């Protein structure tokens, strides 16, 4: 038995002890037997998701919750898959898959880094490179974007004569990984953790948070963090070989990518239509309330569903633009879908009033919350979310912190705290995750394994962004978003 299999087996046994053992615990601490069972499933799931995997162990979560009488299997399956969050992610993954197969990533990056301003100097070039990555990351899955972008980044290094082992190459690789991670928190378009945070809030309160509201909070926060990252690189890291970059050489990359064909133009048009249906209604909310109400009632899952149908119908070169078999086997992150379903229902179980965990958390933490000002509680939740997301799954972080935040904050006097802002900020905080390989396994592991950066460098600069994130979210994002957005 290999060390990896043995480690997973140990974690699985520990998880099963938590889940099964909780069924035999007597009532204690003011919690009912079923409440203790839900907590057992909660902690057992955390152990499996962190130590084993995020895909098939989620089936154990659903199985265990189904055996709790209050929920049963009918409610569990309905709660896990009968909601717009899972459908939204499923259709969005399908929609952006054909885009990842085109030359869009290269073409978009080239347009950013070869303009006149980007060619003025090395730091201009770095700024536009990070801007290109961030822009694409607003609507492309971070893992997909990073894997697609890596070969092109190698080409950029080759054209600009950037050497491995130098500080500039290290800086650009770290910046690429951090910008892509941050972009996954700036919008909820095809990004799991912001979508889950919004879903938890809507489910718990019945109030709506739309795509425009989230982006009005997330995009400015992300831009501010990226500016601080670049300033940190320039004035703290200070790469000694930055002036070896000759940005004008990037112009040679223009001839390496063919012009967009009809297929790519159709895909881009459909993606634009989808984004418009998400964002557009919010812009006419006050002017045309009835139209807003109608379109908003379609849910966030409808636009990508419509987009997928269009791409299934249209043919180019005698082939469908979107192939069902291919997209379901290669384009959908089924592990994320399954875990999202399990985590969504688990979060609902944790906050279920009949179970009593929310009331117990409120009474237990009320002495602490009574002594802490609102700002102190926000700093607490942001610190918790950002620390945890750097050492465990982004989805697990969103689930845990959102559930506790909703339980505690909704019990406070009405108007004392903007719960929508805090929960959406948790979704953003889950994307500040570059300190360790566990934080964002695909991105951080591939970046470190590329040879352009090291685990030590990623930890240091991931921590730099983590601290900056706590401060900005707590003292800038919260007051401004509460006042202007939510």
From TrEMBL:
Topology of the protein relative to the lipid bilayer: Multi-pass membrane protein
Keywords, sorted A to Z: Membrane, Transmembrane, Transmembrane helix
Sequence intervals crossing the membrane: 9-26, 46-68, 80-97, 123-150, 171-194, 214-237, 266-284, 296-315, 327-348, 368-387, 394-413, 419-437, 458-481
The UniProt record lists the keyword Transmembrane: yes
InterPro entries attached to this UniProt entry: SLC13A/DASS
Location in or out of the cell: Membrane
Name this protein carries in UniProt: Anion permease
Organism whose genome encodes this protein: Fusobacterium simiae
């Amino acid at each position: 038995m290999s060390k990896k299999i043995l480690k997973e087996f140990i974690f699985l046994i520990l998880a099963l002890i938590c889940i099964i053992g909780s069924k035999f615990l007597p009532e204690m601490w003011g919690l009912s037997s079923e409440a203790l069972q839900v907590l057992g499933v909660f902690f057992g799931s955390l152990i499996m998701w962190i130590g084993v995997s995020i895909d098939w162990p989620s089936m154990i979560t659903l199985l265990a919750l189904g055996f709790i009488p209050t929920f049963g299997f009918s409610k569990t399956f309905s709660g896990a898959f009968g909601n717009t969050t899972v459908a939204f992610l499923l259709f969005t993954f399908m929609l952006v898959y054909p885009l990842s197969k085109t030359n869009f990533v290269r073409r978009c990056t080239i347009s950013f880094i070869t303009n006149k301003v980007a060619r003025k100097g090395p730091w201009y070039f770095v700024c536009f490179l990070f801007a290109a990555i961030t822009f694409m990351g607003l609507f492309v899955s971070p893992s997909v974007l990073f894997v697609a972008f890596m070969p092109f980044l190698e080409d950029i290094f080759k054209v600009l004569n950037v050497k491995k082992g130098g500080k500039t190459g290290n800086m650009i690789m770290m910046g690429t990984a951090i910008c892509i991670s941050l972009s996954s928190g700036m919008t909820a378009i095809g990004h799991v953790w912001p979508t889950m945070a919004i879903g938890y809030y809507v489910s718990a309160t019945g109030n709506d948070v739309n795509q425009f509201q989230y982006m009005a909070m997330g995009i400015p926060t992300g831009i501010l963090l990226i500016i601080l990252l670049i300033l940190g690189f320039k004035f703290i890291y200070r790469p000694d070989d930055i002036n070896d970059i000759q940005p004008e050489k990037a112009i040679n990359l223009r001839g390496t990518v063919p012009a967009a064909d009809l297929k790519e133009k159709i895909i881009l048009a459909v993606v634009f239509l989808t984004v418009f249906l998400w964002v557009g209604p919010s812009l006419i909310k006050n002017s045309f309330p009835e139209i807003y109400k109608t379109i908003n009632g379609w849910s966030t899952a409808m636009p990508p569903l419509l987009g997928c149908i269009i791409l299934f119908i249209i043919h180019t070169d005698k082939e469908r633009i979107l192939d069902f078999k291919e997209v379901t086997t290669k384009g959908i992150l089924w592990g994320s879908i399954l875990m999202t379903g399990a985590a969504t229902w688990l979060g609902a179980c944790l906050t279920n009033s009949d179970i009593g965990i929310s009331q117990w958390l409120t009474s237990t933490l009320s002495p602490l919350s009574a002594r802490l000002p609102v700002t102190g509680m926000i700093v607490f939740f942001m610190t918790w979310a950002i620390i945890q997301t750097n050492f465990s799954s982004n989805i697990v972080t969103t689930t845990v912190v959102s559930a506790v935040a909703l339980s505690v904050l909704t019990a406070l006097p009405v108007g004392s705290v903007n719960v929508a802002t805090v929960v959406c900020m948790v979704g953003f905080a889950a994307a500040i995750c570059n300190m360790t390989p566990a934080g964002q396994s695909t991105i951080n592991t591939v970046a470190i394994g590329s040879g352009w950066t090291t685990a030590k460098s990623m930890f240091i600069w991931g921590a730099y962004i983590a601290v900056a994130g706590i401060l900005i979210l707590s003292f800038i994002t919260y007051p401004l978003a509460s006042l202007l957005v939510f």
